[in-house]
Design brief:
The protein has about 700 residues and is of the alpha+beta class. Among the domains are: about 140 residues, Immunoglobulins (Immunoglobulin-like, Sandwich); about 110 residues, Immunoglobulin-like (Sandwich), CATH 2.60.40.1180. The protein contains 15 helices and 32 strands. An eight-stranded parallel β-barrel has the order 13-14-17-18-21-22-23-24. The chain has a six-stranded antiparallel sheet with strand order 25-26-27-32-29-30. Strands 1, 2, 3, 6 and 7 form a five-stranded antiparallel sheet that branches. α9 packs across α10 and α13 runs parallel beside α14. The radius of gyration is 27 Å and the shape is elongated.
């Protein structure tokens, strides 16, 4: 191995990472506590380490150097020197090859071996003992890439028309790159499971036909499989185990790890009017707890990149994943911001969903709505203009912060999910909760000028039952995860409709179809931003597994060839329902509804009715036995809409509201029969109207 065959100059402390300028590469690595940093160059296969170059300068806590004669395609890694003193928070070990936090592309896969750990596994002193084995042969390598903006031929963004959807118009489809495409029979085999596969016209046509206009992709930044999963023959399918925040996950690229494939995917989706939102994990990394491997941040500067406990040997963990990223440190916060801007500037993504976002709002230990991360995003001229979605909880003390995020943010509304499930399951005492959820959860979000779109409404998501399983299983069935069915949520608020799992009983199947329609109709008729889980429209089942994070197989993959007649009908129902939402402005209002007059006759923007046609009173709301309700939406320029909901197991007769300006009501949606805009005769207001058991109806006024 050579240490001095290249001409090395001081270079610059910015930008961070490896930057090619047409002649050579500038390397810049932040470390507050290291003594030295070496760049290690590898051959084209990433197997043989050919050269080590010590970065000659240290400016503003950044090691840097300029190396002439190397360029795009060069494979490299880092070795960082400093004290190995876990009790002081330092875990430097130059025997461990490290991934550059700013690497834009990775080559190869992580191969689990004890040499990846900075300490000697099995030693009596545990992580206090230094492991001197070299880890390079087991590590993926970083790749020097072209400077995207200055030297790479411009990607054809000039022809792009970005959707730039208003939040009130947005309908999100949560999806997985591989799960959506790996089984699609009309996607070329070599492209299935990749960004190129998602860009295939057949896949995009399905999204367009369905009517969604934003796709939220589970993590696509480079992540790795946990060792304990690999040892059990499983994989980290979901991808919430990020290690490199700038590089795409190599497993989702059809050739290498080039970010150009993501650009192509985004471009094609934009052409179809579909925005792209990335699910990102800036709360923890794949390095895990103090007993985890040394792959990047831990070896570069453990005390800066991670939040440490009072005993600095351990981590202050609010994520349940072993560590918490220390965004309180300005250089770490800078890395997060640089990463977010990179995906917006270079890949034109339209927004982000932040996993366990409460951890990003912790000022040291406590959550603050004006935390420095939120302030940094708010003042950023680029990031403040994209869609920002928080998963508003973590597992730390005081971590459930639904409604606690600042203006400009939307939030996954877990309370909406739970209340909708409880209502249609037939639980008592949920009427006030369901009413609030239908109107965008104003009690949570109506403050500081926030709008109904702040509530990301969902009934199902990647974490939990699919919609088909929600109506087919009373209990989780996670045996395939290898944890004795102890993992995953127990509070599913599901109902199997009379039989656990698959059945041929026609009555049960019809009831399950009706319940699916109830959930989907409630979701798409509620104020706020609806989010549909991939495959719910097509009857996807995970066989009762509500925590399929490690199931990279047919349990998780959408089976395009297995969509039967019932699911085809439900897909059509969902598509028509989305079209109806787009057609009726009253279903996607930009302001919260509080019963304010909108007409001279005293008609209010929102009115709640009992089955006897009278307005709801306080005593009615407190009657925990009631499971049926009607709500009328009105506006100055739109025909009133009437939503009738009956979660009873028996039919209920409703007296429809009598209004001077309304001659009758036209039925638009009937979940009992699976009809949308069936063209039936208008319903008069002079006789009781029967709402079938466990059903939802939507009517539009006739004048």
């Amino acid at each position: 191995m050579s240490r001095g065959v290249f001409d090395v100059e001081a270079g610059l402390p910015y930008p961070r990472g490896a930057t090619y300028d047409g002649t050579g590469v500038n390397f810049a690595v932040f470390s507050e506590n290291a003594d030295a940093v070496e760049v290690c160059l590898f051959d084209s296969d990433g197997i043989r380490e050919t050269t080590r170059i010590k970065l000659p300068e240290y400016t503003d806590e950044v090691y840097h150097g300029y190396v002439k004669g190397i360029g795009p395609g060069q494979l490299y890694g880092l070795r960082v020197y400093g004290p190995y003193a876990p009790e002081e928070g330092h875990r430097f070990n130059p025997n461990k090859l490290l991934i550059d936090p700013y690497a834009k592309e990775l080559h190869g896969q992580l191969v689990w071996h004890d040499a990846l750990f900075g300490y000697r596994i099995g030693s009596k002193k545990a992580d206090l003992s230094l492991d001197s084995r070299d880890s390079a042969r087991y590590m993926p390598k970083c790749v020097v890439v072209e400077a995207e903006s200055r030297w790479m031929p411009a990607f054809p963004w000039r022809n792009e028309k970005r959707p730039r959807l208003h939040w009130a118009e947005t309908i999100i489809y949560e999806a997985h790159v591989k799960g959506l495409t790996i089984e699609h029979p009309k996607v070329p085999a070599k492209l299935r499971g990749t960004f190129a596969g998602l860009a295939n016209p057949r896949v995009i046509d399905h999204l367009v036909k369905l009517g969604v206009n934003a796709i939220e992709l589970q993590p696509v930044q480079a992540f790795f499989d946990d060792r304990y999963l690999v040892d059990k023959g499983l994989r980290n399918y979901w991808g919430y185990n990020t290690l490199c925040f700038f590089a795409p996950a190599p497993r989702y690229t059809s050739s290498g790890g080039d970010v150009g494939e993501i650009r192509h995917m985004v471009h094609r989706l934009h052409e179809a009017g579909i925005e792209v939102i990335l699910d990102v994990v800036y709360n923890h990394t794949a390095e895990g707890s103090h007993l985890g491997p040394t792959l990047s941040f831990r070896g570069i500067d453990n005390a800066s990149y991670y939040m440490l406990a009072d005993d600095k040997r351990y981590y202050f963990d609010t994520t349940g994943c072993g560590n918490t990223i220390n965004q309180f440190h300005p250089r770490v916060l800078q890395m997060i911001m640089d990463s977010l801007r990179y995906w917006v500037e270079e890949c034109h993504v339209d927004g982000f969903r932040f996993d366990l976002a409460s951890s990003l709002g912790r000022e040291q230990r406590e959550f603050e709505g004006n935390a420095r991360f939120f302030d940094a995003v708010l003042q950023d001229p680029l990031l403040s203009q994209v869609k920002l979605i928080a998963e508003p909880w973590d597992v730390g003390a005081g971590g459930y912060r639904l409604g606690g995020f600042p203006p400009g943010w939307a939030e996954w509304n877990g309370r909406y999910r739970d209340d909708i499930r409880s209502y249609w399951k037939g639980d008592m005492d949920v009427l006030p909760k369901i009413a609030g959820g239908l109107l965008g959860s104003a009690d949570i979000f109506d403050r500081r000028g926030r709008r109904p779109w702040s509530s990301i409404n969902f009934v199902t998501a990647h974490d939990g039952f699919t919609l088909s399983d929600l109506v087919a299983y009373d209990k989780k069935h996670n045996e395939n995860n290898g944890e004795d069915n102890k993992d995953g949520h127990d509070d599913n608020r599901s109902w199997n409709c009379g039989h656990e799992g698959p059945t041929d009983d026609v009555a049960i199947l019809e009831l399950r179809d009706r319940m699916r329609r109830n959930y989907m109709a409630t979701l798409l008729l509620s104020q706020g931003t609806p989010m549909i889980l991939m495959g719910d429209e097509a009857g996807h089942t995970q066989d009762g597994n509500n925590n399929a994070y490690c199931q990279d197989n047919k349990i998780s993959w959408l089976n395009w060839s297995g969509i039967g007649a019932r699911d085809e009908a439900f897909m059509d129902f969902t598509s028509r329902l989305i079209a109806l939402r787009k057609r009726l402005p009253l279903l996607r209002q930009t302001h919260f509804l509080h019963g304010e007059p909108v007409a001279s006759d005293g008609t209010k923007d929102i009115t709640w009715f009992r089955p006897d046609g009278k307005e709801m009173g306080e005593a009615d709301w407190n009657n925990g036995l009631w499971k049926c309700i009607a709500v009328m939406l009105s506006g100055q320029d739109d025909l009133p809409l009437l939503i009738l909901m009956n979660a009873h197991y028996e039919d209920v007769k409703f007296e429809l509201p009598v209004l001077r300006s309304v001659a009758g009501w036209r039925l638009l949606v009937d979940t009992a029969r699976g009809l949308i805009e069936p063209g039936e005769p208008p319903i008069g207001s002079d006789a009781p109207f029967t709402v079938p058991a466990r059903s939802l109806l939507l009517c539009e006024a006739e004048r």
